[in-house]
Specification:
This protein is mainly beta. It has helices spanning 96-106, 157-162, 201-212; strands at 6-22, 36-37, 44-58, 69-80, 83-93, 110-112, 115-122, 125-132, 139-146, 166-170, 176-182, 188-190, 193-197, 218-230, 233-235. 12% of the residues lie in helices and 51% in strands. The two termini are 15 Å apart.
């Protein structure tokens, strides 16, 4: 099959992964048509991920003021045939135009909210945080990461979380879009401290807010890399 053209190139940097084991019944209604839930050792996971978009270029065009921004997304893991991918419950960005383009191109569940981040990388340690929402009710994910990075072991949870290279987006007409995401394997660092604060219900609903109120089952940091996102194609 001929690969669709490139939609976006960028760098995804300073990624925080908070991973939660959940009841698969929470996700059943959100699985895009043609895909099914993917599991690790029989467990179903959602991940809250904060990261920086840098050097962003859409359809070969770079737009000033839109090259660098934050994103926080809540995603889960699916597969279709032999393709392992992700689907998103909600994606947050601080730029209205970014959210509008993503909704139009992929039908993704993007929302524009005020966002900020802070990353401090010292010798042998990283402290990073992403925050979003109104000042009074702001949500925050924060991580402290000591030690050296390593490539996730074959069959590990960290490999499962980071090595899904397809995206699936449910469409309003009941169909689904499939698209490829290319990036090299990411070395990771285990978190010493991983903390979420704030009321997540306005963004993810009460059920997922209860999930995020608990300590994550695993948490790690990835420096990230350049990425390429290809145009989506309808699946049947």
């Amino acid at each position: 099959m001929r690969r669709p053209g490139v939609f976006l190139t960028a760098e995804w940097n300073h990624l925080l992964f908070f991973n939660y084991a959940v009841d698969p019944a929470l996700l059943t209604a959100h699985v895009p048509a043609g895909a099914e839930l993917d599991t690790w050792e029989g467990r179903t996971f959602v991940s809250l991920i904060g990261f920086e978009f840098n050097r962003t270029c859409v359809c070969g065009i770079t737009v000033p003021l839109y090259r660098s921004f934050e994103e926080v997304n809540l995603r889960f893991y699916v597969q279709r045939q032999e393709r392992r991918g992700v689907a998103f419950l909600r994606e947050l960005v601080p730029r209205f135009a970014v959210a509008a383009v993503a909704r139009a191109a992929f039908g993704e569940n993007y929302r524009c909210v005020p966002m900020a981040h802070h990353v401090c990388a010292g010798k042998g340690a990283v402290e990073a945080e992403y925050s979003w929402g109104p000042t009074r009710d702001r949500c925050l994910m924060r991580m402290t990461v000591p030690g050296e990075s390593f490539l996730p072991a074959e069959g590990s949870l960290a490999q499962f979380i980071t090595e899904h290279y397809w995206g699936y987006a449910a469409q309003r007409d009941g169909g689904a879009l499939e698209y490829e995401v290319q990036h090299p394997r990411w070395p990771v660092r285990r978190a010493e401290i991983a903390e979420f604060r704030g009321d997540a219900a306005p963004y993810y609903g009460p059920s997922f807010a209860q999930v995020l109120a608990q300590p994550p089952d695993s948490a790690f940091f990835a420096e990230g890399s350049a990425v390429t996102v290809f145009r989506g194609t309808r699946i049947h």
